[in-house]
Design brief:
Elements lengths: L25 H19 L2 H9 L4 H6 L5 H4 L5 H6 L10 H22 L6 H29 L5 H30 L1 H8 L4 H10 L13 H17 L4 H10 L2 H7 L2 H7 L4 H30 L1 H25 L3 H28 L6 H57 L1 H4 L9
Helix pairs in contact: 1-7, 1-8, 1-10, 6-7, 6-9, 6-10, 7-18, 8-9, 8-15, 8-17, 12-18, 13-18, 15-16, 15-17, 16-17, 16-18
């Protein structure tokens, strides 16, 4: 299997710069719209819900407990085989991917509305149930959106499409969070949540206009309990039978550990260095967001010019080195220029990685098991870093100090870099790719 190489945009208008051609093709634009719908449920059970509960006078311990609603995103691979293997009654004639996309979108709308109607001051348990429901529905929407995106994009579009999806996710999450705050301040939280349900429309419309993905592989219905169990676990068994599969899984598991440890502790660093909320909002949220979007654009160009393997390797090096910038910030202390440089570098590197690494994870999928395999790979990519952050990061900062902690996260990131370099040299990075990396 040869490395994925970019193709030329067909039918593009001559007045559009060549570097922009890949971004205005139908499939990458659809990936952007899918990202818009994918990002907003995450925002509504995250910062938006935290703000709402705090304003309603809910205790801090109860507010932080709502973080458990995100667990659905880590364990979504457990029910992803249902999306891959089973057709919905009545509406499956429109295609397996489209019917699931529309059905789950309606469930997300219902969950958003139920969360908006629930009153934290009178029935906190009802709010918790509604938040968990939205977490499960949002994670399930991610499953079908990722599968639809990978099967819709041609192999040469995986990099651009991944970047456009990342653009959509960030913008969808930020826009939904901002819209919720603005509407809530004028009309209350119930109206705010109901209004934000409009963010499901982009995904619904993509299914309507783009149709069923041509590269989707129809499942063969299993017969009997034993065959059903075998079919349920077949996405995993198919993957581990590939040459070098365990090396690839090891890479997926460790490549983001250092980056996750650094990112999830940044607010602690900023607080202890004395940065104000306004400074954090401007540099971390505002400037960082712009740097991230710039990184996504550059990541798409790198993917096009360098190919899959070398663009991934370069992005891994950049993400590892970006952790060093926070050690430098901890040394120099409270300086806005230092914060801008550290945040800008980290978000720029993360934006590039958001394109190249997501494209690689997408290319690993077998089109027969797209939903399950991508859900499993994306869960593995984040779970180790989140677990270590929750159990060890605070103690490490207290015992080592911020400078040594961020130097440690830099070192922890390099085994993933070296392992991927080994995968390139040994050929495992190429032979382990799935059918999503080809036109088969």
């Amino acid at each position: 299997m040869s490395e994925i190489q970019p193709g030329r945009a067909s039918g593009s208008k001559s007045w559009i710069p060549a570097s922009v051609h890949p971004y205005v093709e139908a499939a990458p634009l659809a990936a952007f719209c899918l990202g818009l719908s994918s990002g907003f449920p995450f925002a509504l059970i995250g910062a938006t819900l935290t703000t709402r509960l705090a304003q309603d006078g809910i205790t801090k311990s109860a507010v932080t407990a709502f973080a458990l609603t995100f667990l659905a995103y880590n364990f979504k691979f457990l029910w992803a085989p249902i999306i891959d293997n089973y057709k919905l009654p009545f509406i499956s004639r429109y295609g397996q991917r489209r019917s699931w996309l529309w059905f789950i979108s309606l469930l997300v709308i219902a969950a958003v509305i139920s969360l908006g109607v629930a009153d934290p001051g009178e029935a906190l348990l009802t709010v918790a149930i509604a938040a968990i429901s939205l977490g499960v529905a949002g994670a399930t929407l991610d499953i079908i959106i990722d599968a639809y995106r990978i099967e819709l994009l041609q192999p040469h579009q995986l990099g651009t499409g991944s970047g456009m999806s990342q653009y959509g996710w960030r913008i969808g999450a930020a826009a939904a969070g901002a819209l919720a705050l603005l509407v809530a301040g004028r009309f209350g939280w119930t109206v705010a949540y109901i209004t934000c349900s409009v963010f499901t429309l982009p995904a619904i419309l993509v299914g309507f206009f783009m149709g069923e993905p041509a590269r989707h592989r129809e499942p063969v219905p299993p017969r009997g309990v034993l065959n059903t169990l075998i079919e349920y676990f077949s996405p995993l068994t198919e993957f581990v039978r590939r040459k070098g599969a365990w090396v690839v899984l090891c890479f997926v598991l460790i490549h983001k550990v250092g980056d996750t440890l650094a990112n999830l502790t940044l607010r602690l660093l900023f607080n202890d260095l004395g940065f104000s909320n306004d400074e954090i909002a401007f540099y971390d949220v505002g400037f960082g967001f712009i740097a991230f979007l710039a990184g996504i654009f550059i990541g798409g160009i790198m993917y096009t010019r360098m190919g899959l393997k070398h663009s991934v390797l370069t992005s891994l090096v950049l993400m590892a080195v970006s952790n060093f910038s926070f050690a430098a910030l901890a040394i120099v202390g409270h300086t806005n220029w230092g914060m801008a440089a550290a945040i800008g570098f980290e978000n720029f590197a993360s934006g590039i990685g958001g394109v190249t690494v997501v494209a690689y994870l997408s290319a690993l999928c077998n089109l027969r098991f797209t939903a399950t395999q991508y859900a499993l790979l994306s869960a593995l990519a984040s779970i180790a870093g989140r677990f270590l952050t929750g159990t060890m990061a605070g103690g490490l900062i207290e015992s080592l100090g911020y400078v040594n902690f961020y130097l440690l996260t830099t070192l922890i990131a390099f085994p993933g870099v070296l392992l991927f370099w080994f995968m390139i040299r040994s050929g495992l990075a190429e032979v382990s790719l799935g059918s999503a990396a080809s036109n088969r």
